[in-house]
Design goal:
There is one protein chain. By secondary structure, the chain is α+β, with helices and mostly antiparallel strands. The chain has a single domain, classed as NADH Oxidase, CATH 3.40.109. The strands form two sheets. It has a four-stranded antiparallel sheet, sandwiched between helices. A two-stranded antiparallel ribbon has the order 3-4. The longest helix is centred in the middle third of the chain and has 18 residues. The chain is globular and about 50 Å long.
């Protein structure tokens, strides 16, 4: 299926945003970070509970506490001048029938707003799951009952010279998505 037809109707940021890894170490202005975080705070949530909690690490000491708790595969994160810890806990949001808990759904909505605003600001915003959550929670005094769901790596695009071959290839690969008919069903669940 040709997605070009559909993309003409989507906003530029959705179409063009990619989770790149080639960061510049240049500091991000505080007002830019404020706009990015304001976009996150404007996300919808169940009964407007706003269950997200973010820690913005943008000084060398705070960044060091995160960067020392990354696996080797995330070596590229070390150039980032700003990392955001995205947290929530179940009782901050709606719990509906059959134990559907909205906290992490709503955190995802806020994170997507953050990512799109960062792109609009000329930044890369790359969410990752590969980190040591227990150690980072301890380093930032995040209470045990909270889940540190993701880190969002922020920075300006930079040189690719420090990337390994695999990541360099990913930087320039075509954007891949599953076919719509594999993930979107109309009027009933379809299985193959």
């Amino acid at each position: 299926m040709n997605y070009t037809i559909f993309m003409e109707k989507l906003i530029h940021e959705i179409e063009k945003r990619r989770a790149k890894r080639a960061f510049d170490t240049r500091e991000i202005p505080k007002d830019c970070i404020q706009r990015i975080m304001q976009a996150a705070l404007l996300a919808p949530s169940c009964f407007n509970n706003q269950p997200w909690r973010f820690i913005v690490a943008d000084n060398p000491e705070a960044l060091g506490r995160i960067k020392e708790n990354l696996p080797g595969a995330n070596y590229w994160v070390k150039k980032s001048p700003c990392i955001i810890c995205a947290c929530s806990k179940n009782d901050l949001d709606c719990t509906l029938s059959d134990n559907r808990n909205y906290a992490f759904f709503d955190l995802g909505l806020a994170a997507e707003n953050l990512v799109l605003q960062a792109f609009k600001e000329g930044l890369i915003a790359h969410p990752i799951a590969g980190f040591k959550p227990v150690e980072i929670k301890k380093a930032f005094n995040i209470p045990d009952e909270y889940t540190l769901l993701a880190l969002i790596i922020l920075g300006y695009p930079g040189e690719e010279a420090h990337l390994n071959d695999k990541h360099l290839e990913l930087e320039h690969s075509e954007r891949e998505r599953k076919p719509m008919e594999e993930v979107v069903f109309y009027n009933s669940w379809l299985s193959k």
